[in-house]
Design brief:
By secondary structure, the chain is of the alpha/beta class. It folds into two domains: 202 residues, Alpha-beta prism (UDP-n-acetylglucosamine1-carboxyvinyl-transferase, Chain); 206 residues, Enolpyruvate transferase domain (UDP-n-acetylglucosamine1-carboxyvinyl-transferase, Chain, Alpha-beta prism), CATH 3.65.10.10. 31% of the residues lie in helices and 25% in strands. A four-stranded mixed β-sheet has the order 22-23-1-24. The relative contact order is 0.15. The model has no long low-confidence stretch (mean pLDDT 97). The structure holds ligand EPZ.
């Protein structure tokens, strides 16, 4: 299995371009099932998760061409309404096809996605929403079956903010009869990008980006061309890399309106940040100031930046607190950071980070996507060599991460 080898203590410099957002591309690709017309998606990141979603579209009968970062999808003849376990088990976001299949064909059968290392990952809110719209849900033999004579618009109030449930209900509602209002909806940039895409197809979605989203059902959708929004978590990851290596780098196409909290926290840690148009220049620090965080749904501090922040704070000049309020087990990177000399203790969903002056390179193992990002950041700062294994997790969410860091001057390579 591939590994990434990092020789630490090399300054970064120059500029980097951010890829399209994984968490926007996945629901948008699934939502193309809602139309029989061709959709052309540009700025689609070539990630393992995207390749799995592309395979899922073909499995249900869609026809796709994925060249470079452009994905053409034609879902004229969907013939199979089942998302098989062998695909769903490799990518939980496969559950997004349920909302799309139900929305267009009033039927869907999707393998139960199960949990992952960061948490149990329930989908009760998705299923409750579908039932409220008129679907009959049965679960047996590890599959969720959903059927509906028709889907009727209704009011749905999520008692927990859920990105996946918000996306799935939007997809089920765009062709439903009447009006659906989602309260306590997710406001993440990828939800807004999904809504913008569906509106280009002819859907009638308003309020996206706020906690109340309204969808008025339409009889059918057309095709369109859409550019996937840049990945604000990837942007944040490179910003944290400048911070942890005391380097100055420029991010060419940073989605500035999506990273306000990340900018605020990096400035609190002592980084200097300058915006010029869509370019963002970050100047890091030798010893970041301690800056505590609490992960929250957007626009709060993103849970998908928590692991990267833990790495940065492990070098701070004091103590900081990291409260993870979204996922019950998202501290799997901590033991690996501690093996590199960090001094972080975890109690429940709180980590206390006592900053240290330096880290030492070590062989480390990636447990999940963002834990992998935090270990790359730590390796860039550490004295000596860090050998990072199980990097297939990283490839799910970062397009050629080692190439991008190499272009910035890091001594980093992928070995077989
Ligand atoms: C999405 O996961 C992202 N994945 C995750 O990013 C991200 O961490 C998460 O949103 C939170 O922002 C994609 O977009 C593909 P949720 P999702 O439903 O939709 C609870 C990454 O690193 N909940 O917003 O699965 C749940 O337990 C990945 O890119 C229910 O209780 O997350 C959690 O506590 C990791 N019932 C909270 O809501 C449900 O039916 C937020 O989960 C659904 C969720």
């Amino acid at each position: 299995m591939d590994k990434i080898i990092v020789e630490g203590r090399n300054k970064l410099s120059g500029s980097v371009s951010i890829s399209g957002s994984k968490n926007a591309a996945l629901p948008i690709i699934a939502s193309t099932i809602l139309t029989a017309k061709e959709c052309a998606l540009t700025n689609v990141p070539r990630l393992n998760d995207v390749l799995v979603m592309n395979k899922l579209i073909k499995t249900v009968g869609g026809d796709t061409d994925f060249t470079g970062n452009t994905l053409y999808i034609r879902n004229k003849n969907i013939t199979n309404f089942k998302a098989p376990y062998d695909l769903v088990k490799t990518m939980r976001a496969s559950v997004y096809v349920m909302g799309a299949l139900l929305g267009r064909y009033r039927q869907a059968e999707v393998a139960l996605p199960g949990g992952c290392v960061i948490g149990e990952r329930p989908i009760n809110l998705h299923l409750q929403g579908f039932e409220k719209m008129g679907a009959k849900i049965t679960i047996e033999h590890g599959y969720i079956k959903a059927k509906a004579k028709k889907l009727k618009g209704t009011e749905i109030n999520f008692d927990v903010v859920s990105v996946g449930a918000t996306a799935n209900i939007i997809m089920a509602a765009v062709l439903a009869e009447g009006r659906t209002v989602i309260s306590n909806a997710a406001c993440e940039p990828h939800i807004a990008d999904l809504a913008r895409f569906l509106n280009k197809l002819g859907a009638k979605i308003t309020g996206y980006g706020s906690k109340e989203i309204e969808i008025r059902g339409v009889p059918e959708l057309k095709g369109c061309k859409h550019e996937i929004t840049p990945d604000y978590i990837e942007a944040g990851t490179f910003m944290a890399a400048a911070g942890i290596t005391n380097s100055k780098i420029t991010i060419n196409n940073a989605p500035l309106e999506h990273i306000e909290i990340i900018i605020q926290k990096l400035e609190e840690a002592g980084c200097k940040i300058k915006k010029t148009g869509t370019k963002l220049t970050v100047q890091g620090v030798e010893r970041p100031k301690p800056a505590s965080i609490e992960t929250r749904p957007y626009p709060g501090f993103p849970t998908d930046m928590q692991a990267q922040w833990s790495a940065l704070m492990s070098l701070s000049s004091g103590a900081s607190i990291i409260n993870e309020t979204i996922w019950e087990k998202r501290f799997m990177h901590i033991p690996e950071l501690n093996r590199m000399g960090a001094n972080i203790s975890v109690k429940g969903n709180t980590a206390v980070v006592e900053g240290v002056a330096g880290l030492s390179g070590a062989p480390v193992m990636v447990s999940d996507l963002r834990a992998g990002a935090s270990l790359v950041l730590a390796g860039l700062r550490a004295r000596g060599t860090t050998e990072i294994s199980r990097i297939y997790h990283l490839d799910r969410g970062y397009e050629r991460i080692e190439k991008k860091f190499e272009m910035l001057g890091a001594k980093i390579k992928r070995v077989k």
